Amino acid sequence: MNVNLSVKSSIENYAATAISFANCKQKNNETLYAGKQDSVEISQEGRFTAGFDIDEETAKRLETAMQNADIPALLEEIKKQKGSLPVDEEWHYRRIVDPDGKIYSLTYVESLLRQYQCAENRIKAYYAEAHRDNLSRGNITDSMNYLSLKYTKFGLLVGSPYYRADMSEAERQMALCQEKALLLGGRVVIGDPYALASSGGMINIKDADRIAYQAARDRIDELIREYKRTNGIE
Q1: For 128-146, how does the pLDDT look when each residue is reduced to its tens digit (9 = 90+)?
Q2: Which helix (H) or strand (E) holds 40?
Q3: Has residue 166 got a pLDDT over 90?
Q4: Highest mean pLDDT range out of 62-66, 68-72, 160-164, 206-210?
């Protein structure tokens, strides 16, 4: 059984719901839509009202802040309305610390792989005693014959004392697969409910994704905090 890992794209998409601060001053007096013959001009108040669902009076104050290029005041107004910094500012800092998304992607993948590596280690530990027993039978051929006597119908038919009648057919098949992989230097199957039953069960891909996603987010947030400290940004 092979485990295929589906890795997320380089960075998550952020919805642009706030103004682009780098272009505020430049676009201050531009129209929202323009054509060669006809144009529809929408005021800054209208844009802010649509983007932030705020009242007209507040929108006018935002308009004034923009006209005077008073960005701190503008941010303060937005924070009062939204309770946090706008998406565009978050996006701005993320682009600074991780411009191509490689840090986010690498952190996500590393977290995901660590989770699978942990599961693989637990599986190997579960079969460690049986593996030592298999190796004690002699060479690889002898060890493989021993596996057959333990886990296949051949062992049952010949009345082998090693046949594991105490295990279900599915459990015997899994043990045969895993112990064979250990003998031949292959990869164990990650989806082993028997080996992982006593340590939290098999990996749930949704949980693994959630943990990896949070690890990536935390890493970028850490870089942003470090960047702000270095540059004296509160």
Answers
A1: 999 999 999 989 999 999 9
A2: strand 39-40
A3: yes
A4: 160-164
Bridge partners of 40?
33
Taking the alpha carbons of 101, 103, 106, 111 in that order, is the dihedral positive or negative? negative
CA-CA distance, 148 to 125, in Å (whole number)? 22
Residue identified by tokens 């800092």 is 93
How many Cβ atoms sit within 10 Å of the Cβ of residue 98?
A: 21
Beta bridge pairs of residue 39? 34
Which token pair is 222? Answer: 């850490």
* DSSP-derived secondary structure letter, 32: S
Amino acid at 194: Y
C-alpha atoms less than 13 angstroms from C-alpha of 155 in its C-beta half-sphere: 18
Q: Is the pLDDT of residue 155 over 90?
A: yes
Percent of the chain exceeding pLDDT 90 equals: 51
Model confidence at 80, pLDDT cuts 50, 70, 90, reads: low
14-23, 49-58, 74-83, 164-173: the lowest-pLDDT one: 14-23
Return the residue matching tokens 């199957």: 189
Pull the structure tokens for residue 120: 């693989």
Helices 102-126 and 128-135 sit at what angle, rounded to 10 degrees? 60
As separate numbers, helices (DSSP H) first and strands (DSSP E) second, the chain gives 11, 2
Q: In three state form, how does the secondary structure of 81-139 look?
A: HHCCCCHHHHHHHHHHHCCCCHHHHHHHHHHHHHHHHHHHHHHHHHCHHHHHHHHCCCC
